[in-house]
Fold:
Amino acid sequence: MVCDKMLLDDEIIRLVGINERALAILKENDRIIDLRLHAYLPSKGPVSVPAYVVYHNAARGPPCKGGIRMSSDVKLDETIQLAEIMTYKSALMDLPFGGGKASIVADNRLPAQEKGILVREFAHKIRNELTSGAFVPAPDLGTGPREMATIFGETHMRECVTGKPIGIGGLPGRREATGYGVAVVVEQAAKELLNSELSGLTVGVQGFGNVGSWTCTFLSSFGAKIIAVTDVTGGTINRNGLDVEKLREHVAKHGGVEGFGKHLSNEDLFTLDVDILIPAAIGGVITNENAGEIKSRLIVEGANAPTTKEGDEILARKKVPVLPDILANAGGVIASYDEWMIAKSGTRTRQEETYSTIKKALVTAFKEAVDYSSANGVSLRKAALALAACRLVSTMEDRGWV
Ligand code: NAD
Structure:
């Protein structure tokens, strides 16, 4: 299937000097696996659930690397878009991974045991992809360490999956890696783009799952003031700063943010007067309908693809910098690389080393993107994509593909 909404636009293609042959490869997906998972779920009875695995570009792999999304809304098109994002994210971070993604079209609020039934069936059906090393999944929206443990349970090979619990070869620091990375780039951006220290800056976050909650924890430990958080259940606001650990306890007990202090809707979050806005939940939330109303001085994409093309153009016209997903949320894949390597070598590491690897990689990538952006007069998103595309095309040349 040809991807007609590719991430690279004409300006990036011209800047990088991508030839027709390379472009034709980047427009296509290497492989799409289209599955139906048949299972019996105690709460629903017999179900047949669509599931997909997409390899966008495997030049820097195998493996193709990417998370497994579980959501009743997820579609094949979105899985393709997410796999493409992974291609450029891994290339930007200079990791030897192709871009992949998987999705299971099911409610991610199913009981853990029922999620496990679907994930086991999924792992069973793509067993060859997992055990051959073609695809190494990780958590994404709706999945976490428990689902990764289920995949390990099917293969009994530690290098088949990352984001596992520590006891079966998970990496200390992987759980909070993406949120830690978001906080690191926010700190850099505050200094370089807002000419400010983090302390005292106000932050609003959509999503309080893996990425959103750890982003909040690290940012508040770095001195920022988290004043608003929303999720699928609703939201909360406190101009004096939210107590993030108390919010974490509330979410663990009640299943969502709603009910913690003063209510805030998801719609109102995006037009709130905050210095930094961090969408860290779902895609397509900053659009032509709300981008004009955004008052924040900086947007940081904790989620994948939270900004539509039209939303992005409006923000560019308003001169609001956007730290793109392939940079801002790359902490997870950086840590996943370490977990994968350690699974292969049998060595061990510590949480501090994971944090230090993430920080080093992200500070370097942030600086490269800022320098490229000012040297070429393009947005940070275009700069990050151009840097990644350069690396990718050069790898395709090295392999004799182009
Ligand atoms: P998660 O399942 O742990 O949490 C998702 C959060 O989003 C929850 O708080 C949920 O309530 C909220 N949410 C879901 N639907 C919503 C809606 N309609 N409106 C508002 N909030 C909604 O997922 P996660 O792993 O934190 O992933 C969040 C985003 O970060 C996704 O875009 C994912 O692709 C991206 N991401 C995740 C990782 C990772 O390591 N987990 C790495 C890179 C990028």
About this structure: The domain at 10-168 is CATH 3.40.50.10860 (Rossmann fold). Residues 73 and 105 are 7 Å apart (CA to CA). The pocket of nicotinamide-adenine-dinucleotide is lined by residues 67, 139-142, 178, 206-212, 230-232, 266, 280-282, 302-304, 329, 332 (CB under 6 Å).
